[in-house]
Amino acid sequence: MNLENYKISLQHKIKEISFSGRTNSWEREFLRNISKLSSLSPKQKELIDRMFEKYVIKYDSRRN
Question: Whole-model pTM?
């Protein structure tokens, strides 16, 4: 995956997590703040991946 696709993927994950309506206040603030940044740390990226897994992927799999 090239850098541009990875950035789009991260933006997509942030959007999906935000729209899930399942995040707590700290997570919502975190998403708001990182969406304004031009680059993210590895820990921030890892947290986004975990939140995406928890709030988007696992929730969708339970609905099926």
Answer: 0.79
